[in-house]
Amino acid sequence: MDIRHEDVIPISAQELWRVLQTSEFDDFVAREYELKAYREIEKQVSNNLIERRLRIVASADLSYIPFGLAHKILDSNEIIYEEIQGKYLDRYEMYWKDKWIEPVSFRDKIQVSGKLQLIPIDDARCKLIREGSVHIKIFGVGLLLEGMAAKQVENISKKFARVVAKWGSKNAGNHGP
Predict the structure, then answer these.
(1) Fewer CB under 10 Å: which end of the chain, C or N?
(2) Whether the model pTM is above 0.70
(3) What is the structure's pLDDT at 143?
């Protein structure tokens, strides 16, 4: 299932691109999303690309699935995955791809990937576009879960826009690293 979400963010594309993938912004995002872990475990920098691998541990929020089905699918209170991110240095574009670690039963059955793009509007705003795809290969419920996952990705995208706006308001005029 393909997903596309757009938001106007009250921070310039240049400023957001500058802080994206910094430890300060990562820590802020982790707190705002109440993640148990959001840790960079590998990073490579080339002339045109910063590519990194993150370990992410989140509480399993499956309130949109009946409890019995959620427990049967996850058999855990946590979701653990790694995310590969590639941030281009010559344009406002970043790709991402998730690799599931836990629950083990998801490792080969869930594929989530996408692209984040910023379009400058003016010195104080930009448009954030997130496109992605979710593919879940679980017999009998894959399409149903894809729809639910797509809704969660949309909610995460909306929250990211609010998180960035909050970051911008807290850090206005702060031009650190």
Answers:
(1) C
(2) yes
(3) 77
